[in-house]
User: Which sequence fits this backbone?
């Protein structure tokens, strides 16, 4: 299995530190708002990486943090007149709901920055003791970047080039730095902000230190995979490497994986540009499985442009797999025989090649785009080799293969009837509400959405009835 490692800038054979085990850390969101679909990309991508590693038999310890102390959280808390923890707790809960909708499994551990302050103080103290950090007069603690000789190895940047750029970026108050390249580990409190006591001043940690500390606490000093969006390569991950390797005296992570951006109109989707759509916005129109399918239809290192036609095409494609699974179920229930024929046994052997094709794609740096092609090849094979004469045993085996591949991608293609019923009832209630408010456009949109799910509505005197499209 090959993984593209940002550190070496090439694909490398995957060899975990400990046989059969993978320690993986993914930088998580700052929780001050609903997550947008740009944030959803690393969640879906690295959840799929985790699922594939597990499919290969690895025991994966997957840690992903919530950054719950940050300027933006504090600002929002001041606006609402509440404690910052009210804001962060609210959006952690909302984020978890979105993750569940996208079928992103919860991490083994989801640490929160505010609960790990002691560990951060300890690591900062070690860095000071080793000469890699210093406290300025006002109590700010800086990392002495030039002392870490390998600084720049991840982003392939040269320290002297950086120095020029950094000087022009200097902001007020930073003149206590020994060198413009030095970055903050701990900063003094400001009026009205949350703070913690420390040996240097009452204050709070810089952003980078939290990941070094949580990764060490939950996964150990050395890990296999560290991941996040490509905007994190510099400075966040570069700084994490400097902190962790200086403090622990060991290589931090063997492999560094970065997903490319999700763009909109060919610009990065981001909260600061205001060009974002939240996962919640998308869930108003689409089943979030469509979003997951859309994200996986491109390789994770290729930029992906969000557009309505692409989402529509993702919806149609996913529908083909769902229909295939549902036809298999119908066939299994109504099969005239259980016994596998000789010809069917041969076909089953032939169908194994789609799993091989799928694994080859995923072994090549998690090429989900090609893996999806393998799934469609299997769907085509199923559609052309099954009919009402097929045995239940044959159809069951094909269904198992299809569901196994979809499950590695985290795609739910077989809806439990009850959950579909609940979803339909909820949409019907929303449509009734829209009609009550004379929002007929919204009512029509919901009717169309239901139609897209294969549900037809009938307005009768006793109320709204629904049935599945035949
Ligand atoms: P943030 O909350 O901005 O710290 O982002 C959380 C995660 O989402 C990080 O791994 C970012 O790199 C990633 N991310 C943010 N915006 C995008 C985007 N437009 N496309 C892909 N990844 C993104
Ligand atoms: Zn991080």
Assistant:
């Amino acid at each position: 299995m090959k993984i593209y490692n940002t550190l070496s800038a090439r694909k490398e054979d995957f060899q975990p530190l400990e046989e059969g085990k993978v320690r993986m850390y993914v930088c998580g969101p700052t929780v001050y708002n609903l997550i947008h679909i740009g944030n959803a990309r690393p969640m879906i991508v690295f959840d799929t990486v985790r699922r594939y590693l597990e499919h290969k038999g690895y025991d994966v310890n997957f840690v992903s943090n919530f950054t719950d102390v940050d300027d933006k959280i504090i600002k929002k808390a001041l606006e609402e007149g509440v404690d910052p923890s009210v804001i962060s707790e609210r959006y952690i809960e909302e984020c978890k709901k979105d993750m569940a909708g996208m079928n992103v499994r919860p991490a083994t551990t989801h640490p929160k920055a505010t609960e790990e302050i002691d560990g951060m103080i300890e690591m900062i103290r070690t860095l000071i003791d080793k000469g890699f950090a210093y406290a300025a007069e006002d109590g700010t603690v800086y990392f002495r970047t030039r002392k870490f000789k390998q600084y720049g190895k991840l982003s392939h940047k040269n320290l002297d080039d950086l120095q020029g750029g950094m000087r022009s970026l200097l902001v007020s108050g930073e003149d206590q730095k020994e060198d413009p390249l030095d970055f903050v580990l701990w900063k003094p409190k400001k009026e009205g902000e949350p703070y913690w006591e420390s040996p240097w001043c009452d204050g709070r940690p810089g952003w980078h230190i939290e990941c070094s500390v949580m990764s060490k606490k939950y996964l150990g000093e050395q890990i296999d995979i560290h991941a996040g969006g490509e905007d994190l390569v510099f400075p966040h991950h570069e700084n994490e490497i400097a902190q962790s390797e200086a403090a622990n005296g060991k290589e931090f992570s063997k492999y560094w994986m970065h997903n490319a951006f999700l763009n909109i109109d060919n610009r990065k989707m981001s909260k600061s540009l205001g060009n974002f759509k939240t996962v919640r916005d998308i869930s108003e129109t689409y089943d979030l499985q469509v979003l997951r399918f859309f994200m996986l239809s491109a390789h994770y290192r290729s930029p992906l442009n969000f557009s309505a036609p692409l989402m529509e095409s993702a919806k149609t494609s996913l529908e083909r797999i769902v229909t295939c699974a549902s036809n298999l179920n119908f066939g299994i229930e109504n099969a005239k025989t259980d016994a596998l024929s000789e010809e069917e046994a041969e076909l089953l052997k032939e169908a194994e090649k789609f799993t091989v094709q799928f694994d080859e794609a995923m072994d090549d740096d998690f090429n989900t785009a090609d893996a999806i092609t393998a799934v469609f090849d299997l769907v085509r094979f199923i559609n052309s080799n099954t009919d009402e004469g097929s045995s239940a045993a044959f159809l069951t085996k094909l269904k198992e293969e299809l569901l196994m591949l979809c499950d590695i991608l985290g795609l739910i293609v077989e809806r439990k009837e009850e959950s579909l019923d609940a979803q339909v009832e909820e949409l019907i209630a929303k449509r009734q509400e829209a009609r009550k408010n004379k929002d007929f456009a919204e009512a029509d949109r919901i009717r169309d959405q239901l139609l897209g799910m294969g549900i037809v509505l009938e307005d009768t005197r006793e109320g709204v009835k629904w049935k599945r499209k035949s």
